[in-house]
Predict the structure.
Amino acid sequence: MKLLLHTCCGPCTIYPLEKLREKNFEVMGFFYRHNIHPLTECMKREETLKKFAEDSNLPMIWQKGYEMEEFLRKACFREANRCQICYYDRIYATVKLAKRGKFEYFSSTLLYSRQQNHEKIIEIAQSLGKQNGVKFYYEDFRSGWNYAIEKSKELGMYRQEYCGCIYSEKQRYIKLAERFN
């Protein structure tokens, strides 16, 4: 069973990859980069994921370019729905690759995060999967949250402090500033 796994970073890939392999999926990763700000952050995440993928024998597809402006155009004046826009873009790119690569399934490491809206991700993924003839594989990977955090620390992986978009980066720094005031 071939599965294309959207991967947002190395630490978030640890647990889903283990679980999928336990279920005998033949997993290939796909790194989507257009939503990650700034470019230096994107490069840190990609570098960490490359090392993890190599060490884990995870074949990868690396998105080319850096079209962050396109993400911003879609999210601008729709900030309240920015996560939904971002989910859609990442899942759409993943399902299109899965279809072209003749994968039977696709999934996402977004399903590992306690910070993400699983119901919205499922809704978008099921719809896009049905439209494109590729099955969406859902598993709630959040149970491995603490395990993967510890494992990523053991491996000395770069661990980011926000989801990746400029809006979440702003929220992160506002929270930090508020602690000092």
In short: Helices lie at 10-22, 39-55, 68-75, 82-100, 118-132, 145-154, 166-180.
